[in-house]
Design brief:
This protein is an alpha/beta fold. Helices cover 50% and strands 20% of the residues. It has helices spanning 3-29, 40-57, 71-78, 80-97, 121-133, 161-177, 188-210, 251-257, 260-280, 293-296, 301-310, 325-330, 332-344, 361-366, 376-379, 386-401, 414-423, 439-450; strands spanning 61-68, 103-108, 111-117, 136-138, 141-143, 147-154, 183-185, 213-222, 228-239, 243-245, 286-290, 319-324, 348-354, 371-374, 405-409, 427-429, 437-438. The strands form three sheets. Strands 8-9-11-12-13-14-15-16 form an eight-stranded mixed β-barrel, surrounded by six helices. A five-stranded mixed beta sheet has the order 2-3-1-6-7, with helices on both faces. Strands 4-5 form a two-stranded antiparallel ribbon. The radius of gyration is 30 Å and the shape is elongated.
Length: 467
């Protein structure tokens, strides 16, 4: 009998030890190891609990979201260890700045957050910006990246967790676009913008199956003779109330919502339907379509495109797919698979925005890329700035040496066209020749040109450049 109390004590001690271990494991699972603050998961759970308590008590709660300014620059110049040291310091400052009842967290990367009473939001936000912007010494160097803060308040700004987080993020984004090192609240301006986006989202989801987003076409002309040899496909939204909308008005929202793929498919199919007779009748040689980076990151993209193309009457040899240099840099192996698969079917690959980034000549040497498109930012000054002229001339020379054809986009005045043609550019497009137009107008212009009545004539070369 005397052994039972010892066994009971041992069991009690073991249970206490297991409970302590469980609590320690739970705490570690909820804590950011670098800063010691709670992590995103624990913070989101705590925010939900505090919102419920605030709703029950009729109280207001403020969510501050924080992003360090120029943190990437610090990482790039001093290294990731220096970045970790700064993040640890910012975490310590935020923990010290948190008042009673407030909860600070590191959400990931250089993002932090704070839950606080909504008593004096401007004063609290200013204190956070000031505390996180003070200089700190790393490797003997004083660094002060600064901080941007966005804030939204429950329940005046948002009635639930998802909207509160989204609205605070929107306020933060506005600060970042204005240079950082300050704070912003979610206000009437952002609310109106948010409502516009919600309306746009609903209308966009309706517009795609309704066929309101349609292909427009901009001619690509032969530099020597001015004859239209191809068209580039551009999306336009024929909105029932707002009229014709350019891509900038809806593509960014479509990309955020994951709808850009559906738009690309609808526009591609309609463009092929319109353009196939032009190719069959010998009015044009090719149709160029832009591909979004998100689509290109899909390992099955090229197979899907080939399948969709096969369901149309457009020959593969008449299709030109435009990809950007940035995609080549993001995933060269995936780029190669897509490019080689499409090229094997006869599809032409064009490197768009050439000259804006790394001008990847290595890709031109080792990948079956047949065309480069000079970006309009280079074309703007090509006839007026000697340095730009030399740069473009050298790029044209390099492309010709590799057997790649060259298209200049954004040509808007005769001086640009004269220079480009004299320098060896093969094809051009831009407002000097024609603006984008709907399919019926494009069809009329192509057939009029074919009948000999509407050729787009290029500006004449000066005598010294002839021959």
């Amino acid at each position: 009998m005397s052994e039972h109390p010892d066994i009971l004590a041992e069991l009690t001690a073991r249970v206490a030890e297991l409970e302590a271990e469980r609590a320690r494991t739970l705490r570690l699972a909820q804590t950011d190891s670098l800063t010691g603050l709670v992590n995103r998961g624990a913070f989101t759970a705590a925010l939900a609990e505090r919102l419920e308590a605030a709703r029950a008590d009729g109280e207001a709660l403020a969510l501050f979201v924080i992003d360090l300014d120029r943190f990437k620059h610090l990482n790039d110049t001093l290294g990731h260890h220096a970045g970790d040291l700064l993040l640890a310091e910012m975490g310590a400052r935020l923990r010290a700045a948190a008042g009673p009842g407030e909860l600070a967290a590191r959400l990931g990367g250089d993002e932090f957050a704070l839950i606080a009473p909504a008593a004096d939001v401007p004063k609290r936000a200013h204190e956070l910006v000031s505390a996180l912007s003070q200089p700190h010494s790393i490797y003997g160097r004083a660094v002060a990246p600064g901080a941007s803060v966005g804030v939204a308040v429950f329940p005046t700004d948002a009635a639930d967790l998802a909207d509160l987080q989204r609205f605070a993020d929107q306020a933060l984004y506005r600060v970042k676009t204005r240079g950082g090192r300050r704070w912003s609240a979610f206000d009437a301006e952002l609310r109106a913008e948010n409502e516009r986006r919600r309306t746009l989202e609903a209308e966009l989801r309706r517009a795609i199956p309704a066929g309101e987003i349609e292909p427009w076409f901009q001619p690509v002309v032969d530099a020597a003779g001015g004859r239209i040899v191809g068209v580039e496909v551009l999306a336009r939204w024929r909105h029932p109330e707002q009229g014709l909308l350019a891509p900038g008005a809806f593509v960014p929202v479509a990309e955020e919502l994951g709808l850009i793929g559906r738009i690309d498919e609808a526009v591609f199919e309609a463009a092929c339907r319109h353009a196939a007779p032009w190719v069959a009748d010998g009015l044009i040689e090719h149709v160029s379509c832009n591909v979004s980076p998100r689509d290109l990151m899909d390992p099955a993209f090229s197979r899907k495109l080939i399948r969709r193309l096969g369901e149309t009457d457009l020959p593969a040899t008449a299709l030109s797919v435009e990809i950007t240099e940035t995609f080549l840099l993001q995933d060269l192996a995936l780029s190669r698979r897509h490019i080689e698969r499409l090229a094997a079917k006869g599809v032409t690959i064009a490197l768009d925005d050439f000259g804006t980034g790394y001008s990847n000549l290595r890709a031109l040497m080792h990948l079956p890329i047949q065309t480069v498109k000079l970006d309009r930012s280079l074309i703007n000054d090509v006839a007026s700035d000697a340095r730009v002229s030399r740069l473009v001339g050298s790029m044209l020379h390099a492309a010709r040496a590799l057997g790649v054809s060259i298209v200049a986009e954004g040509v808007e005045d005769p001086a640009q066209a004269i220079f480009l043609r004299a320098a060896g550019c093969d094809r051009m497009q831009g407002y000097l020749f024609a603006r984008p137009m709907p399919a019926d107008e494009m069809d009329a212009q192509l057939r009029a040109e074919n009948a000999g009545g509407a050729e787009i004539r290029p500006p004449a070369l000066p005598r010294r450049a002839r021959g």
